[in-house]
Amino acid sequence: MKIIVDAMGGDNAPEAIVRGGVLAAKQFGEDIVLVGQEERVRAILRADGAEGIPHLSIVHAPDVVDMHDDPATVLRKKPGSSMAAALKMVQRGEGDAIVSAGSTGALLAGATLFCKRIKGIRRGALAPVMPCAGGQVLLVDAGANTECTAEYLLQFAFMGSLYLRKLMGVDRPRVGLVNNGSEDTKGDALRLEAYRLLREAGEAGRLNFVGNVEGRDVPLGACDVAVCDGFAGNVMLKTIEGTAKFLSSELKQVFLRSAGTKLGYLLVKRGLDDFRSLFDQDKIGGAPFLGIAHPVIKAHGSSNETAAMNAVRQAIEFCRSGLIEEITANMEYMTIGEK
Amino acid sequence: MFEKLCSILAEQFGVGPETIKPETTFVEDLGADSLDLVELMMSIEEEFDIGEISEQDAAKIKTVSDVMELLGEDA
Known about the structure:
The complex is a heterodimer of chains A (339) and B (75).
Chain A: E1 2-6, H1 15-28, E2 31-36, H2 38-47, E3 56-60, H3 74-77, H4 82-91, E4 97-100, H5 104-115, E5 125-126, E6 129-132, E7 135-140, H6 150-168, E8 174-178, H7 189-203, E9 208-213, E10 225-227, H8 230-256, H9 259-278, H10 281-284, E11 286-290, E12 296-299, H11 305-321, H12 323-329
Parallel strand pairs in A: 1-2, 1-4, 2-3, 4-12, 7-10, 8-9, 8-10
Antiparallel strand pairs in A: 5-11, 6-7, 11-12
Helix pairs in contact in A: 1-11, 4-5, 6-7, 8-9
Chain B: H1 2-13, H2 34-48, H3 55-60, H4 64-70
Helix pairs in contact in B: 1-2
């Protein structure tokens, strides 16, 4: 197996990404290809004494995708960028999966343009895993598609459900439709139509549809797959991230208030560390881009070397899972014919 | 050529090829977004083997007949 890593993407690139690639090559025993400005990549490897280690190679790409570049067109305008070069390697069959911490929009556009969607899938969707009461929840779509049809949402539900089954061992993932109320009459035209399609898939035994879920119910563990359009998904994801940071900082202030509270902190520190680790994005690595004909992992923009290594781990697991074949095999249940 | 283009559009936008007319617009009628348009240009380049369509030419393309014109055949 060969995992292609965009070495120049992300806030801490190329250092953190190169070091994450080194850790992955040592730990997972699969081939890792670092795509980026060769001299810079090589200098980092040299400084770390990691030149020439097994399973690690470099492919030179002179250019870098900038966060200000237009996502839809940048990879055609910058064919020499590390992201474009990495995607094209996967397209040509020179790699099995791509990992990038670079511009989300550019990666999503590039994956669609170069790696192509699975035949029958209308749109690819970003699917991060978030912690919730009782475990984890997969949010599909977290921002790739601001405008969706009911058919897109049906496909997100199937892809999310299959992802959890194949990669995370969840037997019958509970699929919820994110809505502004739990009753089946709630929502706009899109949500009402999506509800109908999801209910039908549930009644046919193809999905474990648990109905509408409100935003507050998602972190409380109401479902395993939270289905929504990319606009709502992105707002929800960022709101949850912000709320977690706010609560964490408020909690810190409480413990700093007096000598007594500081002493109390020492007594509960281990529990708090466990709590904090629930939100540790570095352990997860990244989010899969579902619906593309090859595994694509979007690592967090601020990925450090641990996060980059774990994003590679995720890509390896994705490759081994057979998820793309499983999505293809279920295609007839997730298309509603021509418009 | 028109039939081939219709089949590309049908595949990409999930519509019946018979619903596509020369005056069909990509954004209004087929609901294309900016990524769809780039994807369409790339499919046309590949399927008709015409090299890269410039940004200026791409910006002028609004309807199916605009593509036919670009390909050198009047719709």
